[in-house]
Predict the structure.
Amino acid sequence: MHVSPEARCVEGTTTRGEVICPCRSGAWRPPTVVALRSVISCGIGDWPRGVEPHVRNVLVLVFVLTLAGWTQERAVDPTWLHRYVPTLSEVKTDLTTGTCHYKPIFGEGDPDKRILRSVIRFGEVTLDAHGSCGSVSYERHEDLYFVLEGQGLLALGEGTQSLRARDFTYLAPGVKHSFANSSEKPLRILVMSFAIPKGVQIGSPPEPRIANLDDLKEETVQGHPASVLYKLLVGPRSGKRDAIDEAYVVTSLFWMNFAPGGTNFPHHHENAEEVYLVIDGEGEMVAGSGMDGVEGRYPSKAGDAYYFRPNCTVGFYNQSKPESKAHILAVRSRIPQRDDAD
């Protein structure tokens, strides 16, 4: 193999001073190299006596594999995330106690929390029979809760309000609260917390309200086909269409009911991130797309959760079998903008 003179080893280093090579001058050292060319430049005749050819070949192979590992150290942040809730493990948070268990889905407690912009936590709390969670209050968080299963109590200051399955509520920043299970069966609550940018002025907290999904009417939403019906749970303070319009960062907490073969059309949101949780049914989740415009489709079932970064293609296709309905609970929140800065 021909090697250019300027890359040959002299006095134990290359002329460019890049490496320490096992060359003819000085004691032999393991090759701590930054370029494969530098190892090759230490020709056969340059290796010290006693270093057999097969040993040299092994060392070069080790280097090549190491270099390949270096090129893969920097991982690219994903544009979407997937979790299957039943397989997730619980972690300790400010909510947890001996009878209150938190399972992170996205955000706090999840290894990929760094890529989320406005979502602080999206997870599931399970309270044992007659259990209770820790009391919490957040200065610049807004919190949404949705009761997945069971019944219990929401403590707000000195008072309490009862909870049942499919209840939901919005709690403004600064509202101290906790949960308790008033039954013999587990109480499962979906926990959603969002950061309010420092540049956003926070007003006096409104009186907390609890609504139930079953009391809301289904409706179509402009821009989406009639094969999916929506229930609009929580929206922004400037809105008037949702059951509770009091949010600062959350633009929509909504429920989707897909008819057989139904879809909400793949789409994206430039300035918002979104989370989908499949409550029941099966279908194909759309997550991302290629340069050819063809969306990525992934089989999805109850318990699958997806997080989508801004501008990521998102959507869902239900099965076409008769009577095969699917329901998804979704939340969308706007990411911080320049106007939100201090």
Remarks:
- The first strand starts at residue 9 and ends at 10.
- Confidence is low (pLDDT under 50) at residues 1-45.
- The chain has two domains: 5-71, 80-340.
